[in-house]
Each structure stands twice: as C-alpha cells, then as structure tokens.
Amino acid sequence: MKERIITGILGGALFVSMVIVGGWIFALFISIVASVAMIELLKMKKIAPISLMGLISLLSMWLLLVPTSWFDQVMPSYFTKVEIFVFMILVLLMFTVITKNTFTFDQVGFVILSSVYVGFGFHYLIMTREIPEYGMILVFFILFLIWTTDSGAYFVGRKWGKNKLWPDISPKKTIEGSIGGIVAAIIIGTIFYMIVPIFPSYLTALFVIIVASIFGQLGDLVESALKRHYAVKDSGNVLPGHGGILDRFDSLIYVMPILHLLQLI
C-alpha cells in the first residue's frame, strides 16, 4: 500500500507538471508514455518489441500519435498520415505471406487495432493540451471527471453495490457503483464549471461530463477485457503498486477521441 501511495504521488506530480508545462515537452513526454503503453500491448500478444514486427507496430502507432505539425515537417505534403498508415497495413499483410504465416492475420489485426487504440488515444490528449487559451484547463477538467468517476464508483459500489455491472470482465464493478461515479462526476464537474466556465453553456458542460464519465468507465472495461483475454493481472509493471501505463491511462485515452469525434472539445 505504501509503495502504491508513493508511486501515485510521484507519478501524479510528474504528469500534472507536464500538463502545466505543455508545448513540445508535454508532447514528447506523452510520446514516451504512449510507446511504453504500446510495448505493454505487444508483450500481452507475445510479440517482441525489439523485432521487425515489434518495430513496425511501434512505427505505425507513432504515425498516428505525433501531432500533424511534426509530421508535416518530416514528410512531403503530398503524403497524408492516413495514406501512410494504410500502406503500413498492406506491408503487415505482406509479412503474413513472407513469413509463411509465422506472423499471422490475427497478429496483423492486433497490431492495427492496438496502434489506433494507443496512437489516437494519446494523440488527442496532446491535441487537447494544444488548444489555445484553455487547453491546460480542459485536460485537467477531463482528468478530474475521470478521477471523480473512479472514486465515486469505488465508494458507492463498496457501500451499496449489489448488482454486478459486467461480471465476466470486471467482477467487482457494480451498476450502483457506475451510477454513483456518474453522479459524483456531475457534482464535481458542475463545481469546476462554475469556477472556470470553459464551455459556452452549462448544458454543453453537462453533456461533456456525462460522456466523459460513461466512456471513461467503458475505457476501463475495455482494458479489463484485454487483460482477461490475455490472462494477465496488469498491463505491465512500470508503475510499482499500480501496474502498467495502460492500467492508469485506459479511461483517458478512450475518452479523448470520443470527445473530439463528437466535437465537444
């Protein structure tokens, strides 16, 4: 427990500091974090990170991760990120033939989906921080919503939880806890909005709060399903007492793309 608390304080302080600093330093920090997360996924699938397939996987993730401004400085303007990513998918499919199915179609699908999951998730975190004037506040707003949802779900579920939410994936989570997490997020999110009104109306803020709370919980379940499928307790051990990077960022990297795709931020 002591180790968990120390790791939480130090890790939280580092992440908050990076969010405050912002700019290329934050983007570089998140790129490193995302790389560790991708390596955790590769190890779950038993793909060696330091191998041809592992390096291609990391490269495809980085392609989706990096800010467009970085990409435009490196690649000619007539190549888009999507076009290059599609080309990499075709290369991966080619490897199923070259390796005589040592590298399987199933592994190709895993690499593609993992690249999108990790790459886009952290990409939209970087993009949110880069929003002029209120990017930093917006990142903290989403973080508070996720942390509040987790805490509310834990305490309400422990006190009143009786009906299992999704026992096959996460046996301890309850419907009562999930609802309690959403209610807690609405309360804290409303207070945050009253202090810092970063949205044009409270109705918009309320919609963001509810979406972030619900999909934050779904993001946690997605990662739980991954771990259960690959029979691992934690995604990694880089954070003593907390597991891996994906164990800590699963909700955040699921929520950020959703909010952007719904054009809420």
TrEMBL record:
Protein name (database record): Phosphatidate cytidylyltransferase
Catalytic activity: a 1,2-diacyl-sn-glycero-3-phosphate + CTP + H(+) = a CDP-1,2-diacyl-sn-glycerol + diphosphate
Gene Ontology BP annotations: CDP-diacylglycerol biosynthetic process
Associated pathway: Lipid metabolism; Phospholipid metabolism; CDP-diacylglycerol biosynthesis; CDP-diacylglycerol from sn-glycerol 3-phosphate: step 3/3
Gene Ontology MF term list: phosphatidate cytidylyltransferase activity
UniProt lineage: Bacteria, Bacillati, Bacillota, Bacilli, Bacillales
Subcellular location(s) per record: Cell membrane
Species in which this protein is naturally found: Halalkalibacter nanhaiisediminis
Catalytic activity, EC: 2.7.7.41
Pfam families cross-referenced by the UniProt entry: CTP_transf_1
One GO CC annotation: plasma membrane
Enzymatic class: transferase
Family recorded in the similarity comment: Belongs to the CDS family.
Membrane spanning stretches: 6-35, 47-66, 78-98, 110-128, 134-156, 177-196, 202-222
PANTHER family tied to this protein: PHOSPHATIDATE CYTIDYLYLTRANSFERASE (PTHR46382)
Topology within the bilayer: Multi-pass membrane protein
Keywords: Cell membrane, Lipid biosynthesis, Lipid metabolism, Membrane, Nucleotidyltransferase, Phospholipid biosynthesis, Phospholipid metabolism, Transferase, Transmembrane, Transmembrane helix
